[in-house]
Design a protein that fits this description.
about 500 residues, alpha/beta, Amidase signature (AS) enzymes, 2 domains, eleven-stranded mixed beta sheet, 15 strands, globular
Length: about 500
Amino acid sequence: MRDLVFLPAHQLARFIREGTVSATEVVEAVLAQIARHNPHLNAICTLDQENARAQAKQADQALANDEYWGPLHGVPITIKDIFETAGLRTTAGYIPLKDYVPPQDATVVSRLRAAGAILLGKTNMAELAGDYQSTNSLFPRVNNPWNLDYTAGGSSGGSAAAVAAGLSALDIGNDFAGSVRQPAHFCGVYGLKPTDRRISTAGAIPEVPGMPYCLRQMMTIGCFGRSLEDIRLCFSLIAGADPRRLDVPPIPLDQPPVKSKQALKLAWIDEWPEIPVDPNIKSRMHVIAQQITQAGMTLEHWRPPAFDLSHIWTLYGRMAAYVNNYAQPKDWYTIRRSLTLLYRTATQGEKHLRELGNFSRFLPELLNPSLKGYFETLTERDQFTAHMDQALEPWDAWLMPVAATSAFPHCPAWSAVEVAGRSYPHSIANGAYTIPFNLSGHPAVVMPVGQTQKGLPIGLQIVGKRWREMELFAIAAEVDPVVGRFQNPKGY
């Protein structure tokens, strides 16, 4: 049974379809795994056992009647608690939403249900998706299945931990500053951040119900799985235009060109010189580079011209301040959380790194936003995106670390993080390698590629070209067998 819970979602779907195993057997195995491990992981915050069992029986009966629901027929999944689920509590880890039961599914949830998936429940997260750890005031903190004393990342820590520990075959998360990619890296699973506005955000919080649609830029919806094929399949099911989000363009999935390993031209970088990574990560990047070269792929060390991290960070911070300003009520509780974030990013960590990641610089945009300033920031963002499009054109993809650090011990929200004996501001340690691509809108895949000396996972980030996710998956499929594979956390 334990082996069953670690099968990739696409294999489970095939086995259920072929009758090798029933949906009921799979759901019962996963529920047993949840009962065994979730009490110390806290990855799942709302479990819907009764409905999951009923859906599994219906899935088995449907197959017996030659009815096929879709590519995920009978596969048990979880959904980050930021997405609305009809009839099932959705809190986003936010006290005012502790009893909120939505009237309808988020678009991505309805599309996965339509593909035959069985919803087990909701996964735990950072409060209103606002931290690189998954803690909130409603549920116990999420622990990393590789070491319970360490964070699973955030804000989608429960999603990554659940998939890594065999509590779910697939999960959906959101990524505004690395919230899919960093937890995938910390927990040793596959993750995807797609092109900006490729997937509908309808029914997603942190825009608290009743607030206007503000997060129109940089907020993306991604997925977690135990194989590259799983996240490719999931993406293909949830991507596309949506009448509930008219800013999602009706762009069809791309048809990737057929390329051999030898024809691929890949760029890579082991670290930003301004923000060094943990030596374990840097060493692993060099091993990966050697393995890829030995496999016959062309790989060159590269960084785009005029790739100014200080400017990128400033532009991202201004953009984030504008689009977040009206997404949540201005109650004292929310203001106090924001002030804590601003204070710690302004005062903790080495001074030169703190100057880069200090969000208090954006108080003018938060306290006195102007329409002119917003449009100026949008224009600068467009220019940066165009620059990145042009810079990436000669390459098939760009390989790099996911974060400056691997998973770290639990600590107070937005506290400084130790990286190889140095004190890094929280946002820099976790977001320095992800935020540039939220700003530019480019898609990225994360795959597990090994562990640190402490036995904590290391992920590789592969950045592709906008609107060409299927091409990115094809490239990642050539790299994956050479450098990556999912491994069960010990004890699971």
